[in-house]
Specification:
396 residues, alpha+beta, Trna Endonuclease, Chain: A, domain 1, five-stranded mixed β-sheet, 12 helices, 37% helix, 27% strand, globular
Length: 396
């Protein structure tokens, strides 16, 4: 099975149809090479890709442990060590992610299945809750069943529906360890009181987390990952292949946003992708990745996250232009570009814009070290952002 690294290339013997199928996925670029072969170049997507009989494994350049750290930043540092070791040994990301998800679900549901009050409308033989007058009138004098509207304390809630849907999908993945498959089955049985209604990854984004359901957040983050990125191909009624591709750009942005939000909680409010107007007439809108606000809701700092740094390790000009537009539109003296650092990249760089005085800070995070080192870097990054936000107060 061909293995290549993120943004790496490999020459493969493919048919013209296979090359076209790979190219059509958008995950890799396929161009003709010498000797009748095809040059396949990976992008920011990593994982396992199965198309038209061709299977590729694409590995990220970061530490395997830190890949799982990015997959779900809400878990303790040692939660993914077993799966990270397995992935490092086999290069196949999907079975490791499924095993990671199975153990997370088992731990989460072991604390008790979440229940909540949900409003329901059902025809019943006896009145329960409130009479649904409009529905009852439609029955033209028929007294039973009675149209009722009531609050039901149930486990059939969106959090459990998403989890059940992800469990059912994960059970169809091939090459999963039998022990992990049994673990998935046990958790599916535990949620037998939950309906199999249609769900999608966007439903996770709509969930508001409180102290009552906060322990579900890591599990639902992984469920979202599976529902968003797992594609199964069926043949003859049985699963024949599965693709699981994760965009490192999206993963890095989600990870940093969540970690900074937790680290800065109570000090600075972190708002992701707010709408910002560039012009006075509010005709041109922009969405910076991060906006940092004080307790009164005023923007004090702005940041943009870029997973891949330019080849010269200085940042792309377009990224600086974009950040300059954000700082100008919001009225801030300073903003930050946050990159994933590679070997040879500078840790920090500051550009002062001519005739504007804006300070554009380039800051990078190293994901090649241990999870503990990554945590230290994020803490230092959060401190720098908070200091920048405090400096901005002088301009108001």
């Amino acid at each position: 099975m061909p293995i290549l690294s993120e943004y790496g290339s490999i020459n493969l013997k493919l048919s013209r149809e296979q090359a076209a199928s790979l190219q059509s996925t958008g995950y890799v670029e396929v161009v003709p090479a010498l000797d009748g072969r095809w040059k396949v170049t990976a992008s920011s997507y990593v994982g396992s890709l199965v198309v038209d009989g061709v299977e590729l494994l694409i590995r990220p350049k970061i530490n395997p442990e830190n890949l799982f750290l990015l997959l779900e930043p809400g878990l303790p540092p040692n939660a993914w060590r077993k799966e990270a070791f397995s992935y490092d040994s086999t290069s196949d990301l999907l079975p490791s992610v499924v095993a990671f998800f199975a153990r997370t679900v088992e731990t989460t549901l072991g604390r008790g299945i979440l229940r909540a009050y949900e409003s329901r409308q059902e025809p019943l033989v006896a009145l329960r809750g409130r009479l649904d007058v409009s529905q009852q009138f439609k029955r033209a004098g028929v007294l039973t069943p009675v149209s009722c509207t009531f609050d039901d304390f149930s486990e059939d809630i969106v959090e459990n529906r998403v989890t059940r849907a992800a469990l059912r999908l994960a059970l169809r993945v091939p090459r999963v360890d039998p022990g992990e498959r049994q673990r998935l089955m046990r958790q599916l049985v535990a949620l037998e009181g939950v309906s199999d209604s249609p769900v999608n990854a966007k439903m996770v984004d709509s969930i508001y987390f409180t102290r009552l359901n906060q322990h579900y957040e890591p599990m639902l983050g992984l469920a979202r990952l599976i529902l968003s990125n797992l594609t199964l191909t069926d043949a003859g009624g049985s699963t024949s292949a599965s693709s699981f591709m994760v965009d490192m750009n999206d993963l890095f942005q989600r990870f940093l946003t969540e970690r900074l939000r937790r680290t800065l909680r109570g000090k600075v409010d972190v708002v992701d992708e707010p709408i910002v107007h560039l012009d006075a007439g509010q005709q041109v809108t922009m969405r910076p990745d991060l906006e940092f606000r004080d307790s009164a809701g005023r923007a004090r700092y702005v940041g943009d996250i870029k997973y891949k740094l330019a080849e010269n390790a200085r940042g792309r000009s377009n990224d600086y232009y974009q950040l300059l537009a954000y700082t100008t539109a919001i009225g801030l003296p300073e903003g930050m570009l946050i990159y994933c650092r590679r070997q040879g990249d500078s840790e920090r760089r500051t550009v002062t814009v001519t005739n504007a005085g804006k300070r554009l800070v380039l800051r990078s995070i190293d994901l090649t070290g241990s999870p503990e080192q990554v945590n230290k870097e994020i803490t230092a990054l959060a401190d720098e952002i908070r200091n920048g936000a405090n400096r901005a107060r002088q301009f108001y």
